């Protein structure tokens, strides 16, 4: 990855629908070399996919709940089972294995508290959990899908 690739990624993270010709113009390349770079980053897995970011309120999932899970089960088989259970819940939009006091953390989106309660009841019916703690977000202060690119390893193309 060089500085031009990083510029391309910055533009794509802001708007993945931007035409390749416009991206190329903004980074100082013609369309074909720019397209080749994008294709290479897709092949290398740098660009995993291009998606549409939706307004949660307009699709009726405006309530965000952070769910902390503790378990007494700390083995590979149970972790795979739990992961499989979570895959069945489209309400879970992020799912992490954690260090510290909490074993797993989920970000769940639902229309309201009643929908969260239904989610919770379905979840505990499918797998045994030691402790589940829920925190409802009162408001979103910052949200982005763009990753910081300042840390990306860039080949110094000036040498």
Automatic annotation (TrEMBL):
Domain called HTH asnC-type: residue spans: 1-64
GO biological process: regulation of DNA-templated transcription; response to amino acid
Keyword Transcription regulation among record annotations: yes
GO MF term (any one): sequence-specific DNA binding
Keyword entries, A-Z: DNA-binding, Transcription, Transcription regulation
InterPro entries: ArsR-like_HTH, AsnC-type_HTH_dom, Dimeric_a/b-barrel, Tscrpt_reg_AsnC-like, Tscrpt_reg_AsnC/Lrp_C, Tscrpt_reg_HTH_AsnC-type_CS, WH-like_DNA-bd_sf, WH_DNA-bd_sf
Residue ranges that the Swiss-Prot or TrEMBL entry lists as coiled coil: none
Entry keyword annotation includes Transcription: yes
GO cellular component: cytosol
Protein name, UniProt field: ArsR family transcriptional regulator
Species this chain originates from: Devosia riboflavina
């Amino acid at each position: 990855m060089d500085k031009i690739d990083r510029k391309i990624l910055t533009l794509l993270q802001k708007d993945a629908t931007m035409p390749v010709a416009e991206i190329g113009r903004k980074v100082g390349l013609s369309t074909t070399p720019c397209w080749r770079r994008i294709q290479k980053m897709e092949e290398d897995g740098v660009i995993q996919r291009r998606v549409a970011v939706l307004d949660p309120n307009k699709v009726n999932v405006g309530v965000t709940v952070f769910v902390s899970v503790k378990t007494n089960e700390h083995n590979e088989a149970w972790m795979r089972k739990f992961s499989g259970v979570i895959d069945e819940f489209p309400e879970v939009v992020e799912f992490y294995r954690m260090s510290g006091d909490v074993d797993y953390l989920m970000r769940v989106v639902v229309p309201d508290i009643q929908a969260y309660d239904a989610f919770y009841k379905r979840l505990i019916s499918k797998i045994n959990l030691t402790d589940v703690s829920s925190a409802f977000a009162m408001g979103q202060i910052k949200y982005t899908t763009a990753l910081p690119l300042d840390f990306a390893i860039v080949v110094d193309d000036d040498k």
